[in-house]
Design brief:
One of its GO terms (biological process) is response to herbicide. The strands form 5 sheets. Strands 8-7-16-17-18-15-19 form a 7-stranded mixed β-sheet. Strands 10-2-1-14-20 form a 5-stranded parallel β-sheet, covered by helices on one side. By secondary structure, it is α/β, with parallel strands linked by helices. It has 14 helices and 20 strands. It folds into 3 domains: 177 residues, FAD/NAD(P)-binding domain (3-Layer(bba) Sandwich), CATH 3.50.50; 123 residues, no CATH class; 97 residues, Polyamine Oxidase, Chain A, domain 2 (Alpha-Beta Complex). Bound molecules: flavin-adenine dinucleotide (FAD). The site of flavin-adenine dinucleotide has 39 residues, from helix 1, strand 15 and helix 14.
């Protein structure tokens, strides 16, 4: 079967890969001139890479790891020490570590918490552990049911100390969802904790050895194009045209650069676009169907990725860092963490600014200035009056609508990959799967969409060729 897929983010590409494995022909259309969607990256005039987002991979990403194994590129993940590292704003220039020993889960994570005395007192640790018990014992079903509470509400109900929330969960929530604990559904951090508690290497972090566009997305494209699939960049889906029975007749693709609009006809159609774009493109007659009407409850969250190149090394830490700052979420010195960005003399900090709703409209200069002020608080030793570190250049990438906003109650709005329309499917990290709005969630959603297509009864009498109009 020919399957038309709109969107070349990880969900659309994974869907295409697994359809090719099943003997189908995926045809991917992407609106931009770059692969990867939220993992897309570009090179500047000097050849330095900058990215839509700082991306960390976790041991608890079975579908991503399997995909990379199947493509023969698993050695592109650079695994870091098994530890989580937090800045200590109250002791500028210092870090607090949760070192996870190499013993079976969940004892490895528990040991790392017990051993850390910088951030939590014994009483706080005990109350935290008791509060978490139902999530660990009663498992994912309990975790899903907690979607009705914000994380802050849930922590209060469990009697967990406010300091645990402010010290650990603000950092974790901002890293996972780009919003704060009073806005985020309790299901999200509890799901992550559950995975980390159940898998020995679940919380172990890796960085890709180069740009996700080149080192991850391109190999997926090579895989399915070698098997007859196609990718068209600069080919935005403009309209979903329907048959009289409400099924998809074809995708109308906007012709760019002097090319006329064209029709992409296939046996099956997949939207792997973000939910915000899909909502705009939904045909009128589908909007009344409850399945699609529920998408109105989902919306992408703003986030900003800041890149700062300095004239010297600011840190030799080769890991993801949790800033615990109000402005910033996680960051990393990519000159240490990523082989293709390596530099022994100069730091390139990649920092996620979140929550970003008050910053997304501001100028790049304001964003860089605010980030620098924050760094001066975190690393005063590098910005003394005599010999301060010099910023050589910066790059800001704003994403006004990124992954879906994971506020309480949103689980009920997340759609399955199969839809009520027999020849139309959904992929995307916002669709229903257990790994939230992440790279792992995107890959799993693409795989689930491909499985749903494979399992569906054949759709009869649909046109087979892409027709230029
Ligand atoms: C700053 C930042 C940091 C992140 N950090 C992490 C992390 O550390 N770990 C992690 O696991 N995840 C992280 N994520 C989340 C992760 O990047 C996403 O969950 C994942 O990449 C989403 O993939 P997707 O395919 O579902 O959607 P998208 O990547 O949004 O893909 C949708 C695609 O559809 C295309 N499209 C849109 N409109 C059209 C149209 N009309 N026609 C055709 N194509 C169209 C888009 O251009 C895009 O390529 C981060 C995200 C950001 C923004």
């Amino acid at each position: 079967m020919r399957v038309a897929i709109a969107g070349a983010g990880l969900a659309g590409l994974a869907c295409a890969k697994y359809l090719a494995d099943a003997g189908h022909i995926p045809i991917v259309v992407e609106s931009r001139d770059v692969l990867g969607g939220l993992v897309a990256a570009w090179q500047d005039e000097q050849g330095d890479w900058y990215e839509t987002g700082l991306h960390a991979f976790f041991g608890a990403y079975p579908n991503m790891l399997q995909l990379m194994r199947e493509l023969g590129i698993e050695d592109r993940l650079q695994w870091k020490q098994h530890t989580l590292i937090f800045n200590q704003p109250e002791k500028p220039g210092t870090y607090s570590r949760f070192d996870v020993p190499n013993i079976p889960a969940p004892f490895n994570v528990i040991t790392s918490i017990i051993r850390n005395n910088d951030m939590l007192t014994w009483e706080q640790k005990l109350r935290f552990a008791v509060g978490l018990l139902p999530a660990v014992v009663r498992g994912q079903k309990y975790v899903e049911a907690m979607d009705r509470y914000s994380l802050l509400e849930w922590l209060q109900r469990q009697g967990v100390d406010e300091r645990v929330s402010s010290d650990i969960f603000i950092a974790a929530c901002k890293a996972l969802t780009f919003i704060n604990p009073d806005e985020v559904s309790a299901t999200i951090p509890l799901t992550a904790i559950n995975r980390f508690m159940q898998e020995r290497y679940g919380s172990k972090i890796a960085f890709l050895d180069g740009s996700p566009t080149e080192r991850l997305c391109q190999p997926i494209v090579d895989y399915f194009t070698e098997r007859g699939g196609e990718v068209h960049l600069n080919a935005p889906l403009k309209k979903i045209r329907l048959n009289p029975d409400g099924t998809v007749k074809h995708f109308l693709i906007r012709g760019l650069n002097g090319v006329a609009d064209w029709e992409l006809a296939a046996d099956i159609y997949v939207s792997a676009m973000s939910v915000d774009v899909l909502k705009v493109l939904l045909p009128q007659s589908w909007r009344e169907i409850d399945f699609f009407a529920k998408l109105e409850g989902l919306e992408g969250v703003p986030v900003i990725n800041v890149h700062l190149w300095f004239d010297r090394k600011l840190t030799d830490i080769d890991h993801l860092l949790f800033s615990r700052s109000e402005l910033l979420s996680v960051y990393a010195d990519m000159s240490n963490t990523c082989r293709a960005y390596a530099n022994d003399e100069r730091s390139m900090l990649e920092l996620v600014l979140a929550p970003a709703k008050d910053w997304i409209e501001r100028s790049e200069a304001e964003i860089v200035e605010a980030t620098m002020q924050e760094l001066k608080r975190l690393f005063p030793q590098h910005f003394d009056a005599d010999h301060p570190a010099q910023l050589l250049k910066s790059k800001v990438v704003k994403t006004p609508r990124s992954v879906y906003t994971a506020s309480p109650g949103r689980q009920a709005n997340r759609p399955t990959q199969a839809t009520p329309i027999e020849n139309f499917y959904l992929a995307g990290s916002y669709t229903l799967q257990r790994y939230l709005g992440s790279m792992e969630g995107a890959v799993l959603s693409g795989k689930l969409a491909a499985e749903a297509i494979q399992q569906a009864p054949p759709v009869a009498n649909k046109p087979l060729a892409a027709i230029a109009s």
